[in-house]
């Protein structure tokens, strides 16, 4: 039996008889004031019930009853709900049913390993989903496009193209595999961009429909997660498990998207401030913004200009900025320096910046920085390498000195002094 309830009054207003065994699933049409409800059962039958007619009959019956007996005006008359259509849909029990957003199709999922689409209102077969190796436990329509998702006992969620509703086999667009138990329920989220599924492993998985990958995984229940329902706008889903718990989940996709947009907008504004600071020569503000926005190239460009072109004055400004850095910013700057020190073209600027940091920050503060030992090891290794390279270059100049000396192009300092004395003596003799 199928029953229709008034949720506000918590009372049954209609019942539908027709199934000859247990009713395993029911589904309303997704819009408000849904005109019908669909049910499926272990008798393999799919039935459509007229909700609008049931509401009208219930209202009339209660009006008549209240007029005949004013003393019992609060008595509720339960009426029989008329059926619109019925069909034997599958070879085995029906496990799940669904209604399309436009009310033109209904779907059924069965233990016979298939799912089927049916045209309203006559329940003519519109398509068959074949491919699951075990029974299909649930089916759901997409909000955004002509597709359906099925949840199988083979631990797989499948996405099907239902644009062709001529009654043939429907093509499988994608398979989603990550559950370690049978998938028992599936719903579309985020305007059809994502799927949510629960299963015998107690997990709640959120899938990306484009690449078929699980983007989030939650240990939802300690036992099988049998059921899942989605709020009308998709902002919330509820899951129920064999552990006796019911859990409510919030879809934060839109919130996360808005957060990313706000962060991007803030980043654009800060980047513009950084460019403005560079343009007017405000080195200290440019250094702060480059470090805060994690722009190592911009930081290197500004720092090079300050330490190389502006000399000691620029280094003093840099020290003032580095003195105010917090722990996270200091570690970030040291990582910049470590990376720049690996390149001979930027190692000179890197060492000047490092000198400013070491003179601006007290030793105890530097020694307590997270990861400072590894940072120092990286800096030391390349510092030694650059020192050895400079030493080799200096030693190579000795060969040039020797060659010039032998060629007479380079003389000792004593010889030069002797020549100068002789020239002075000659000048004195000429004057006498």
Report what the structure shows.
Helix content is 39%, strand content 30%. It has helices at residues 51-68, 253-279, 283-292, 296-309, 311-323, 327-341, 347-360, 363-367, 372-406, 413-431, and strands at 2-6, 11-16, 23-28, 36-41, 45-50, 79-80, 83-88, 94-99, 105-110, 114-119, 124-130, 136-141, 147-152, 156-161, 172-177, 183-189, 194-199, 203-208, 214-219, 225-230, 236-241, 246-250. The strands form 6 sheets. The protein has a 4-stranded antiparallel beta sheet with strand order 3-4-5-7. The longest helix has 35 residues, at 372-406. It is elongated, with a radius of gyration of 40 Å. It starts with a strand and ends with a helix. The model has no long low-confidence stretch (mean pLDDT 85).
Topology:
Layout: E1 2-6, E2 11-16, E3 23-28, E4 36-41, E5 45-50, H1 51-68, E6 79-80, E7 83-88, E8 94-99, E9 105-110, E10 114-119, E11 124-130, E12 136-141, E13 147-152, E14 156-161, E15 172-177, E16 183-189, E17 194-199, E18 203-208, E19 214-219, E20 225-230, E21 236-241, E22 246-250, H2 253-279, H3 283-292, H4 296-309, H5 311-323, H6 327-341, H7 347-360, H8 363-367, H9 372-406, H10 413-431
Parallel strand pairs: 2-6
Antiparallel strand pairs: 1-2, 3-4, 4-5, 5-7, 8-9, 9-10, 10-11, 12-13, 13-14, 14-15, 16-17, 17-18, 18-19, 20-21, 21-22
């Amino acid at each position: 039996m199928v029953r229709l309830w008034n949720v506000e009054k918590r009372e049954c207003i209609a019942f539908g008889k027709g199934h000859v065994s247990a009713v395993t699933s029911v589904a309303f049409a997704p819009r408000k004031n849904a005109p019908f409800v669909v049910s499926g059962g272990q008798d393999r039958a799919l039935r459509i019930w007229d909700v609008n007619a049931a509401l009208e009959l219930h209202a009339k019956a209660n009006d008549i009853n209240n007029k005949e007996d004013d003393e019992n005006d609060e008595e509720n008359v339960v009426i029989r709900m008329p059926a619109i259509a019925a069909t034997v849909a599958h070879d085995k029990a029906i496990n799940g049913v669904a209604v399309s957003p436009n009310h033109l199709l209904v779907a059924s999922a069965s233990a016979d390993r298939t799912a089927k689409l049916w045209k309203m209102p006559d329940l003519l077969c519109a398509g068959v989903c074949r491919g699951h190796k075990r029974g299909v436990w649930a089916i759901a329509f997409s909000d955004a496009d002509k597709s359906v998702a099925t949840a199988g006992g083979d631990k797989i969620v499948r996405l099907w193209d239902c644009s062709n509703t001529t009654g043939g086999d429907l093509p499988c667009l994608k398979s989603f595999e990550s559950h370690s138990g049978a998938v028992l329920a599936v719903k579309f989220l985020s305007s059809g961009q994502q799927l949510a599924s629960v299963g015998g492993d107690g997990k709640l998985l959120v899938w990306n429909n484009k690449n078929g990958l699980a983007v989030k995984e939650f240990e939802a229940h300690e036992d099988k997660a049998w059921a899942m329902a989605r709020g009308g706008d998709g902002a919330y889903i509820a899951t129920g498990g064999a552990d006796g718990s019911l859990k409510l989940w919030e879809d934060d996709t839109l919130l996360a998207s808005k957060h990313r947009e706000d962060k991007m907008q803030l980043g654009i504004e800060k980047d513009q401030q950084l460019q403005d600071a560079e343009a007017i020569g405000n080195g200290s503000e440019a250094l702060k913004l480059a470090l805060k926005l994690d722009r190592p190239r911009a930081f290197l460009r500004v720092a090079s200009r300050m330490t190389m072109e502006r000399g000691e004055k620029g280094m003093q400004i840099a020290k003032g900025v580095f003195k105010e850095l917090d722990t996270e910013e200091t570690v970030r700057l040291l990582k910049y320096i470590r990376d720049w020190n690996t390149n001979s073209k930027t190692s000179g600027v890197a060492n000047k910046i490092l000198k400013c940091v070491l003179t601006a920050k007290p030793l105890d503060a530097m020694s307590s920085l997270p990861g400072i030992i590894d940072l120092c090891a990286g800096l030391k290794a390349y510092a030694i390498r650059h020192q050895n390279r400079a030493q080799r270059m200096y030693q190579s100049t000795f060969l040039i000195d020797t060659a010039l000396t032998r060629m007479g192009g380079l003389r000792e300092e004593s010889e030069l002094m002797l020549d100068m004395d002789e020239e002075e003596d000659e000048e004195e003799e000429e004057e006498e």
